[in-house]
Predict the structure.
Amino acid sequence: MSEKIKIIILGASGYTGAELLRLLLPHPYVEIVGLSAERNAGHRVAEVFPHLGIYDLPALVHIDELDFSKADLVFCALPHGTTQAVIAGLPKHLRVVDLSADFRLRDPQLYAQWYGHEHQALALQREAVYGLTELHRAEIKSARLVANPGCYPTASSLPLIPLLKQKLIETDGIIIDAKSGVSGAGRAVKQNYLYSEVTGGMSAYGVANHRHTPEIEQILADASGRPLRVTFTPHLIPMARGMMATVYTRLRPGKTVAEARAALRAAYDAEPFVHILPEGHLPATHHVAASNHVHISLVPGAVEGQVILLSVIDNLVKGASGQAIQNMNLMYGFDETLALTQAAVFP
Amino acid sequence: MSEKIKIIILGASGYTGAELLRLLLPHPYVEIVGLSAERNAGHRVAEVFPHLGIYDLPALVHIDELDFSKADLVFCALPHGTTQAVIAGLPKHLRVVDLSADFRLRDPQLYAQWYGHEHQALALQREAVYGLTELHRAEIKSARLVANPGCYPTASSLPLIPLLKQKLIETDGIIIDAKSGVSGAGRAVKQNYLYSEVTGGMSAYGVANHRHTPEIEQILADASGRPLRVTFTPHLIPMARGMMATVYTRLRPGKTVAEARAALRAAYDAEPFVHILPEGHLPATHHVAASNHVHISLVPGAVEGQVILLSVIDNLVKGASGQAIQNMNLMYGFDETLALTQAAVFP
Amino acid sequence: MSEKIKIIILGASGYTGAELLRLLLPHPYVEIVGLSAERNAGHRVAEVFPHLGIYDLPALVHIDELDFSKADLVFCALPHGTTQAVIAGLPKHLRVVDLSADFRLRDPQLYAQWYGHEHQALALQREAVYGLTELHRAEIKSARLVANPGCYPTASSLPLIPLLKQKLIETDGIIIDAKSGVSGAGRAVKQNYLYSEVTGGMSAYGVANHRHTPEIEQILADASGRPLRVTFTPHLIPMARGMMATVYTRLRPGKTVAEARAALRAAYDAEPFVHILPEGHLPATHHVAASNHVHISLVPGAVEGQVILLSVIDNLVKGASGQAIQNMNLMYGFDETLALTQAAVFP
Amino acid sequence: MSEKIKIIILGASGYTGAELLRLLLPHPYVEIVGLSAERNAGHRVAEVFPHLGIYDLPALVHIDELDFSKADLVFCALPHGTTQAVIAGLPKHLRVVDLSADFRLRDPQLYAQWYGHEHQALALQREAVYGLTELHRAEIKSARLVANPGCYPTASSLPLIPLLKQKLIETDGIIIDAKSGVSGAGRAVKQNYLYSEVTGGMSAYGVANHRHTPEIEQILADASGRPLRVTFTPHLIPMARGMMATVYTRLRPGKTVAEARAALRAAYDAEPFVHILPEGHLPATHHVAASNHVHISLVPGAVEGQVILLSVIDNLVKGASGQAIQNMNLMYGFDETLALTQAAVFP
């Protein structure tokens, strides 16, 4: 471990880019050698992120000004759609963790249906390993290209996977009522995300047509061994960070709440970042803020056979940059928790 | 209409008390003649609510210092549990709009089960009219005692009632995922509701055991003509005001989304405060803030037969004090919308 | 008063436009006959402001599609700089309340210095009456063109004017440390005003060079009878509405705190919207939110001879649209408080 | 360094206690051996701070249940007033970093005047070293008892000290207009600090009589070599963390802005946590959130000779627990920045 791996971040002037920097700066085995930002090319990091101004970091440049020859790994934090062409054009010696949605869906038809255009890098898509760390640890270790999961899929599927794998709950009728902080929308400058439009109120959006739906269904289909459909309703909450998924499920005949709880505990007992809360405790996004942790509760519904799962993450950490680093750690044989062990920031 | 009705507010130093005052002050046919506040007795309104300090209002006194003999109507904004004894002790010439939960549940056993003690004023409970204005307009007009609905029951049931009445949706399996601003918890001084504990994060609470559940079930049972159970999950959102109910339902066999939408429109077309949003529009709590309006959307789910209803109110207005005044207007033959026509405050 | 005055709002899709609509809708003597919004022309009000969607309002059109011939008064809520040409081109029978900064500074050189270009409508500028209602009531009544004051100048100068007029405080060394909610920046879509950039933190901006400085100095020079310079430091606070000015002054030799307090009380005792708080009470922006009221406190400093003035307004109401309507009421001989008597919304 | 120092935290269930834990957990040379919390004695840390529930920490106990004999250092995060008796009663082998105000004022008369009672541990007060790290590094290293500075004094005095030491600014007439997030008030359960009372608005408090005033004056008197008085006005801002001091000063005759800027840079150039921002950049509390950093700007005022200093800290880190750990690091000869190098959390 005498030598540090050399990292390039594409799209470093967005929130996931900033979060990668914040988390990677204290990482002992990483050196950041290049940062791209199309609109902010030519600026220093201090100008787009004053909180990072005190660190010695490369200036932001256009992607074609970067010297990839000396880099080992690229974190790609570019917008959906433009990413696939960029990654297809990168030198093949590079390993890549892609935070966009471009390589998450295995089915090209599904991709075309939800994203409105044919996928431009199908070979890469086939090569890509889906980076939900707790589910695909082995494949991630040897992956060249990791498709880092979306925030909603991460929060929603972690509590469901063990129950589906163990065939404890029905595969139909799963309802995911999800709530996200505003940073999930990125740093895009849109009227909807202005402070005065958001503060003091909440709204639903993308009801029944949010693009994270097929990604969630893909994960859950893998876990249950059969295709399934979920109901997924995202809401925008007046907070910068944080995400909660409230998931409504029904036990299969003969299965019990105790079995469901035991399956959850068994699945995550040894996991460093996924925590099943004690009975009677309900999760709050505060308690995972700025951390890579996931808190999950299971509550029996008032209606017979119903099980309610509640799950919280920080959408920028476990929902994006933290999980990306967790995957990088795996890819290079580092301790998986390196640079990710900070406690949540509360209050 | 030459004479104004004389109003007393019990529990005037809480948020629903303040909201009653804010809304009643410009009401042309109302005179506020008494205000009680146990802990704040002896203080002027300006001391507990500086924003009301410029108005000429009675001082806050102990309830037994009030002269009820000259009053016409009492708004009771006291805590649950203590209310029933207080109202039982009031002179019988008074009409009462009670904002607590004490008279909402018709079934005394259900009351005892959820509130942990026998009801202390069963005769009054039988007399009480449930004050969901749009549903019980006729009975409210002649009521002496109105049990003003809870905020969650108001937001949750308004979109469901027409669909249940028309037997368009299944009565089982209804899931209400509700989100509330913090003022719904009142002005109680508890650690959970401190600014630093709430801001920047959200949480679930009362999952599968919130006391508004039987109230919702009672309304919906009335609408559907048969008992039913619902799943009700409240969440605390970092905003002072506002409430959203996201309601998951399934169409009955043979019924269509178009029929459901038509039923909603038909039910509320003539209502001054309930508005069915145009197709494609989703509600936001901002758009009803500080107003008595309700915005409702119906969205077909991605899963066959599913219908998602979204409903927003201001929990302190249509969810409490506004609906109380709407009921008072009915009780005295005033225009139902008097003092309640203000547009929402946005941003 | 049998006939309503006919109103056109230019720039109706911004926050001050929305606030004009919210406040004017219940006004008994006003009819809104035209609304312009350049980028949103062709849309209904419901599309840009869903909270106003239930009202019967004209659609948004380009300014040159408006029929000014039947209008009586124009509220101009356009951006600074573009306003002067627009107003210069309006038919002369129209009365105008301009909410921009274009006609506030009397000195054309000062205008050119602070705004970076020569004023394009000097004749209009000479005609314009500065609309700080409490200071210029008589001139406003007969004005054709009212230059509605900025939010910072309104909040900052109201507590200072009586003390300067009475020569109780020094004219040099006045320091105004001001704090504003984010809606003061309008609905402009800029990265700085994104929710995630603003929430949970605060910042200073425009230190020693904010364009409201010469406007404040002009008001105070009028009050004191001699030119003066002030120190003005604005800060951006994570709240949608509200503005506070904390003003540091020194008593002139021989003058006392009691005299200063008496002067404040005397000046505003009969004013419907300006309230001097009782000794020991400090203002909070909450207590004037969504209202046209101003709360002012005077506190003797710990240092001999120092007097600290604190003043709060809602920047969108008394700081913009509310004062504009107050001026309109004066211009047409209506009760000055018409449509402006609502209590603040708290919490 | 083979052995870790053993730490006890008194008052661990408040916000500064939680922040000590968050920051100390990854510290390589520290072991937490005891935690007290009077009201929460008997509870696990997970119950009062769920975000710390995944760590292996001692349970919360009454202070008299703690075994001090094996501890090396005590962080005392108890309320003002009660602290002095507690510390006086601790075994003398312990080193103490006290986060209360009890040992900050050297002058017992001043203490009695501002705190309303005679000091109960004058010998200890004489022994205490004031823990503004950048100012008293040498004394802190060998101190047994460190009086950790208040948040306001830290934010306010850091920009002033170099200018006063170099006699560049006048000692009279300094005005500090300060703004604090709500966590500065601690976790005390008071109506003023309820979410619904704070969100969406701001207020001033303690104008001309806040207890941090004499502490600031003591620091500045030390720096300038003569007694002085300041004007200090704190404001409560709707954010959980963060503090800004906007400081108004006047240059002494013949002194220049350039000299002032040079003095600031010279004083803090080698400091790991104090950063003078480049000309034209203004500080924002976001950029130091959850970090031990201080950002300072100097801006020439519009008025001749005036210099405006702006300074931001996180009140819970550099304003409390972070500086306490910085002092602990010094006291034990650790690298002063150990466990304190995290970047700010943004957004």
Remarks:
- The interface with chain C takes residues 15, 18, 21-22, 25-26, 46, 49-55, 183, 199-200, 240-241, 275, 277-278, 281, 284, 286-291, 293, 295, 341-347 of chain B (CB under 8 Å).
- The two ends of chain B are 37 Å apart (CA to CA).
